[in-house]
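Progress narrative, Year 2. Work on GHMP kinase from Proteobacteria bacterium 228 advanced from sequence curation to structure prediction during this period.
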Amino acid sequence: MVMGEHAVLHGQWALGAAVDKRIHLELQPRADRQVIIHSALAEYHSDLDQLEDHPNLSFVLKVITLMQPQSGFELTIVSEFSHTVGLGSSAAVTVALVAALMAWHAGHASLDRRILLATAHETVLAVQGRGSGTDLATSVHGGLIAYRMAQREVIPLPGLWPIALVYAGYKTPTPVVIRHIAAAAEAAPALYDSLYQLMGDCAEQAMAALEASDLPGFARCLNMQHGLLDALGVCDASLADIVYRLRGMDGVLAAKISGSGLGDCILALGRVEPDLLPYEVIDVAMSDRGVEIEFVAC
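Result:
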């Protein structure tokens, strides 16, 4: 998540970027009704017609329930990054599985990305009640995008800019953060509405800066967006420490919360010096690759 966290749930634009750390999902059809899943989060075996719940596979199992595949299958999920850091692993797995099941049903790898995004978003809403779909849209399309939730609008944006992520060492689940903000907003709803509008205005200025290849202007918007997230109440002491350490580096143009906040990651625009930070630096780069399908002969 690049910009627009939380405000995107209130009709504003958000910006997201795909990164070069990927999730690989292999689906092998079976002749029976058994569903077998291999992943770092769980080893799972159940009957397609009576799927047993598993707390670590809620998105995967909801996709299977909603899409009703024609037979059982064996699924192997391998990630190039840890699920503990905020790189959108749940979104990537959800998109990959929806795409695999769509391709299996159709018998070819050509996908309608609008239907893919809609199905993946419906899955997330069924599991956790709320979610903008920005991370899903990024997984579907790749690259740097602008996204608005109402019609699942996606606008590709130019440039693959240098970034890094710094992990705080802990994270708060997104639904918990959303409830925290909602509770705080009850005391001052008009002020929170104004914050969301300012965040949306900031995102639109960032979009214009990117279209004009104005990197300093984009950086200014990122820094301002962090201040608005702080006002929203999702910046804690550790995140603030990371932000100001990063902004003190010569090679960093901007630093802000990435994701829902209250832990997880800070996004840096520019070149980070890992040796100067007492936090984990995640080496990532923006990538123009979204979801990809390949049929393999057995």
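The chain has a mean pLDDT of 95. The radius of gyration is 19 Å.
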